[in-house]
Specification:
By secondary structure, this protein is an alpha/beta fold. It contains nine helices and 18 strands.
């Protein structure tokens, strides 16, 4: 398409702008996004596994927006609707760090989002939390970034995994050709601040205090195949860790607990928190325990996946309702 140089300058600039927008996002998608944002701010709700999204779809909590129930962007579907009267946009991120970060970044950049709520399942690293419990961590870390050291290098800190300590049959100690791993900090870029190296990433403090008030949430004890021996509970203020691997090793989970004090292990939480923290968007995490991250009974991960998803979802829904109520009260006071 050619543009005449004799056309009005303002008209020419407008046509170029329309061409750029159309080639970048597609005019139909842009119009749909604008329509969604005119509803006002929404909470972004993200989960990683299909089972976690299925729990939401089957629960009846989410009410699709009849005018425009979803928007498809970059291969992902962003569902438009509400939970307990609060505007919500939810999306299935897919597994591991990159998928989670891309989904959250899209939510923040494209839609009018006032905060990010993340729920899902996790493996337990120690006895502080049991099957079916829901952890609301105060801090999360990415424990999948390492500097690999030669086996003769001196140990620099406690946050270091020496493979020689796990030699078999020596029972620990000595050298091992795999050497050791030194855990690395993340580079956090935040709006209005210089880059800083951090290991622990905190969830939003005000949102965490709101979550602590959710004392009456009826969690599920049984599913179609199994009943837990005790009623599950919500556990606040523990530490969680993420890495791009499914952890199924008893010795490694014990190491993570001993060195970092983490109680749950997953693949996405740190990415979700870090992506939301950079622009200063409130973020919180709810993780239901579906398995022991190594050395668990053979039935746990398959039998409790849906139960852990449902319990994490229940707490997330009550939190969304509480945040919506607080926002409404603040608006009335203003």
């Amino acid at each position: 398409m050619a543009l005449s140089s004799s056309g009005h300058p303002a008209t020419t600039r407008l046509l170029f702008s329309l061409l750029l927008v159309g080639s970048a996002a597609g005019l139909p998608e842009r119009a749909a996004i604008d329509r969604v944002n005119r509803r006002g701010p929404s909470l972004g709700l993200v989960m990683s596994y299909v089972d976690e999204a299925t729990a939401l779809q089957a629960s009846g909590y989410f009410q699709p927006w009849r005018a425009l129930p979803f928007v498809d962007l970059y291969g992902r579907r962003y569902h438009i609707g509400s939970i307990r009267g609060v505007n919500v946009i939810y999306a299935l991120t897919g597994q591991r760090r990159l998928n989670a970060a891309v989904t959250v970044q899209t939510l923040i950049d494209v839609f009018s989002v006032s905060g990010i709520v993340h729920y899902g399942t996790a493996g337990s690293c120690n006895d502080s939390i049991s099957f079916g419990d829901v952890s609301v961590p105060r801090l999360v870390a990415y424990t999948g970034a390492w500097t690999w050291k030669k086996f003769r290098s001196p140990r620099e800190s406690s946050a270091e995994l020496s493979f020689g300590e796990y030699n078999v049959p020596d029972g620990g100690g000595g050298e091992n050709l795999l050497g050791s791993l030194k855990y690395r900090n993340e580079e956090l870029y935040s709006a209005g601040k210089p880059m800083e190296e951090v290991f622990w990433l905190p969830v939003h403090s005000a949102w965490f205090r709101t979550a602590e008030q959710l004392t009456v949430v009826e969690l599920e004890r049984c599913n179609d195949t199994f009943c837990l021996p005790t009623a599950p509970r919500i556990v606040y203020g523990l530490k969680g860790s993420s890495a791009d691997m499914f952890l199924d090793n008893a010795e490694y989970r014990k190491f993570l607990f001993q060195e970092f004090g983490v109680s749950t292990m997953d693949e996405e939480s740190a990415a979700v928190v870090m992506t939301a923290t950079s622009p200063g968007i409130p973020v919180i995490v709810f993780r239901g325990v579906s398995d022991l991250a190594g050395g668990e009974p053979t039935w746990s991960s398959t039998s409790l996946m849906n139960l852990a998803s449902i319990n994490a979802l229940k707490v997330a829904v009550e939190f969304i309702a509480a945040v919506g109520k607080h926002s409404s009260t603040a608006s009335v006071k203003r």
